[in-house]
Design a protein that fits this description.
Radius of gyration: 20 Å
Oligomer: single chain
Strand order of the largest sheet: 3-4-5
Distance between the termini: 35 Å
Order of helices and strands: EEEEHEHEE
Number of helices: 2
Number of strands: 7
Largest sheet: 3 strands, antiparallel
């Protein structure tokens, strides 16, 4: 997971290799909801997990009025890094779509493209 990092200005421009370290004991988390907010100079990314209730009957489903979504991680990102992240996500997702045989996307009317 190494990559070339940002340049540092001084007597000249220098590119420094960044070695990404992911601790072996870092527990992965699942997120099924993302909230992105921005304020002057930073973006806030809130990775959320919807706490879906166990529904046994149609009556129980009708009785649900809200679902709690719990923040699993809050990440603060500079606008410059956010732009690089968006580009990387778009490129990676494009490669993912190319690698699977069928990708369905839900339209606004609830129907699927297939």
């Amino acid at each position: 997971m190494d990559h070339i990092g940002p340049s540092f200005k001084g007597d000249g421009e220098k590119f420094v290799k960044i070695k990404n370290m992911v601790p072996e004991d870092l527990a992965p988390i699942f997120s099924d909801n993302l909230i992105i907010r921005h304020e002057r100079g930073v973006f806030h990314l809130y990775f959320m997990l919807n706490q879906m209730p166990l529904i046994m009957t149609p009556e129980e489903a009708q009785a649900i009025e809200e679902v709690v979504s719990v923040c699993m991680a809050h990440v603060i990102v500079s606008p410059e890094q956010m732009e690089r992240n968006v580009k990387a996500i778009n490129e990676n997702f494009g490669r993912f779509k190319d690698s699977v045989s069928v990708v369905t996307t839900e339209k606004e009317d609830g129907s699927n493209d297939e």
